[in-house]
Amino acid sequence: MSRMCSIGSRRQPRPECVETSLEVAEAPIADTGRYDRLRGEMSHA
Q: How far apart are CA 10 and CA 18, in angstroms?
């Protein structure tokens, strides 16, 4: 079992860690262009 902890923001306290059987298979990749694409799709609606 692994411990999962969320990254807290500067405005809010960090939540407690929890025990879980889930494991991350691969590290997440930020796709900053996704937000621009989504904005373009929404403007066409």
A: 21
